[in-house]
TrEMBL record:
Record protein name field: Spore photoproduct lyase family protein
Keywords: Lyase
Superkingdom of the organism of origin: Bacteria
Pfam families per UniProt: SPL
Length: 349
């Protein structure tokens, strides 16, 4: 996944304990000092990197210090989005919405001030007190998404940040960490989460994943990991996304759900829950993808089924028309009820 040749580092991050640990993992990498992890001319705003995306992701890391810390309310997959300990991703899913501000390649930035971040989180959890009402997110715990802008399973190949987060939440009986992932990193099996970290393995039909999920673990590997992660003390949910409406999608989702029913053990099924999210896309991303992976756009860009909406940041986001979306959401829920009735749906939209 990673053969790091260049690390762009803020001096404070480079000289920190976590920064030195990361650099020790990549002793042959050239370290290039940068004033700010957000201002790296070689990486920023350079759509011309399209053909080199995967090389940039594989060979480049950024080390920075997270300046302002806050936990944003969420209300869907989590109660709060935790301050990120990294952003960017070494994988290259064609539909990925993770911000592409570091140039379209979006290599991983690791934040080295993990102690400050975990201290902030402990204080934030303490200030919430007990969760008064059960909700779809969790019956009792405040859930913090620790991987909104990255994939924690890959981040764990680079630093101990994810291990430190799991250890932090292990000691917080009123809260849980949570992250979605498309990569199976079995090192995480040794982290001893004691039920306070929820992993959401992202799943979609194999046919979609082979076309759209670039550099991820295969769907078969992700399914095979579920029982092992439950056994290791994680809560394991399923992130059924993105649901891509295309010829034959219902047949392929039925096949995936049947496979889950056949292959998951009783313990995994007893604690399972899922979130279902239909595809959203973006006009700029569509244009970029046409330059490197046009086949993906045959299924992602379906103007006859989709409607566009300008986002607050001025981007044109695209989603299925309301009627098609309603049908799609209902269709997936019906398939779950028919083929994997043990799978509680936390939310679907
Ligand atoms: S694994 Fe997640 S963060 Fe990484 S490219 Fe795919 S969708 Fe984006």
């Amino acid at each position: 996944m990673l053969q790091v040749r260049t690390v762009y580092a803020e001096p404070e991050a480079r000289d920190s304990e976590r920064g030195r640990q990361v650099l020790a993992r990549f002793p042959d990498a050239e370290v290039v000092e940068v004033a700010s992890h957000w201002q790296i001319p070689e990486l920023h705003g350079n759509a011309g990197n399209v053909e080199r995306w995967v090389r940039v992701k594989t060979e480049t890391l950024v080390l920075g210090v997270k300046k302002s810390l806050s936990a944003r309310p969420n209300g869907r997959s989590a109660d709060f989005i935790a301050p990120s300990t990294s952003n960017g991703c070494a994988m290259a899913c064609a539909y990925c919405y993770v911000p592409r501000r570091k140039g379209y390649a979006n290599p991983i930035t690791v934040f080295t001030n993990i102690d400050k971040i975990t201290r902030y989180l402990r204080g934030h959890v303490r200030r919430q007190g007990l969760k008064a009402e059960p909700d779809q997110i969790d019956p009792a715990a405040w859930v913090y998404d620790i991987g909104e802008n990255s994939d924690c399973s890959v981040d764990a190949l680079i630093s101990e940040n994810v291990a430190d987060l799991v250890a932090t939440f292990r000691e917080l009986p009123t809260a849980k960490a949570s992250f979605a992932t498309k990569f199976v990193n079995r090192d995480l099996l040794g982290y001893d989460p004691r039920g306070r970290t929820r992993i959401r393995f992202s799943l979609m039909p194999d046919r979609d994943s082979r076309l759209l999920d670039i550099r991820t673990s295969s769907i078969g590997e992700r399914i095979a990991a579920v029982d092992d992660f439950v056994e290791a003390g994680y809560e394991v949910h399923l992130n059924l996304s993105p649901v891509v409406l295309r010829e034959g999608w219902e047949r392929d989702w039925a096949e995936l759900l049947t496979r889950l029913d056949d292959e998951l053990g009783a313990a995994a099924k007893a604690q399972a829950a899922a979130e279902v999210i239909l595809l959203t896309h973006n006009r700029d991303l569509h244009e970029v993808n046409l330059g490197w992976h046009p086949k993906a756009e045959d299924v992602l860009w379906r103007p006859e089924l989709q409607q566009a909406k300008r986002s607050q940041s001025g981007m044109w986001n695209v989603r299925y028309r309301n009627d098609r979306k309603r049908e799609g959401v209902r269709g997936v829920q019906d398939l779950i009820a028919a083929h994997a009735p043990w799978l509680r749906v936390r939310y679907a939209f």
